[in-house]
Design goal:
By secondary structure, this protein is α+β, with helices and mostly antiparallel strands. The chain has two domains: 3-83 and 144-166, Immunoglobulins (Immunoglobulin-like), CATH 2.60.40; 86-133. Helix content is 42%, strand content 31%. The chain has helices spanning 86-106, 109-133, 136-159, and strands at 3-5, 10-15, 27-31, 37-46, 49-54, 60-68, 73-82, 165-166. The protein has an eight-stranded mixed beta sheet, covered by helices on one side. The longest helix has 25 residues, at 109-133. It is elongated, with a radius of gyration of 22 Å. The two termini are 13 Å apart. The model has no long low-confidence stretch (mean pLDDT 82).
């Protein structure tokens, strides 16, 4: 499932049925985790591709419902809004591993131990940052709830006549 960061502009592309262009009635309705709705702005990029833009203000499971009565488009996309981009943590770990690898081949064992201590400190900082964002049990509980919601959305989606698709 797609993930985007809270308070960061999100752009989602949609390809209209039959690559229709000039759809003036194409709309994007956002459903927030609390059930309230908002509109996403839409712009035509070209060749039947449209881009919906918005800035999410809360974390959780969101949906974008796209409709065009003139073209028969009807599609729903579910996605998560998160406050920590886990991929940046993975990148930091990879960078630290690269640093260790290069230092190990160039430095003495004593210097390598200093590098390991520095890396341990950085890992502790990352762990502290992640711990401050959420604890594992609440994440597991949230994932279970999100999976249940996604199952219900999937059931509903099979009842909806699909239109175009999200790119």
């Amino acid at each position: 499932m797609r993930k985007y960061l809270v308070n960061q502009e999100v752009k989602i592309r949609y390809v209209a049925v039959n690559f229709a262009t000039g759809l003036t009635d194409l709309s994007g309705t956002l459903r927030k985790p609390d059930g309230t709705t908002a509109s996403a702005s839409v712009s035509e990029i070209g060749d039947g591709v449209y881009e919906f833009t918005f800035t999410p203000d809360v974390t959780g499971l969101w949906q974008l419902k796209v409709e065009s009565s003139s073209n028969g488009d009807k599609a729903i996309l579910s996605f998560h809004i998160v406050d920590v981009d886990i991929s940046t943590v993975d990148d930091k770990i990879d960078n630290l591993q690269t640093s260790v690898d290069s230092k190990a081949s160039q430095e003495s064992v004593d210097n390598l131990q200093n590098s390991v201590n520095t890396i341990d400190s950085k890992i502790d900082s990352i762990d502290t940052e992640l711990d401050s964002k959420a604890n594992q049990s609440s994440l597991d509980e949230a994932h279970t709830k999100l999976d249940n919601i996604q199952s219900k959305v999937d059931e509903i989606s099979t009842e909806v006549n699909p239109g175009g698709y999200f790119a």
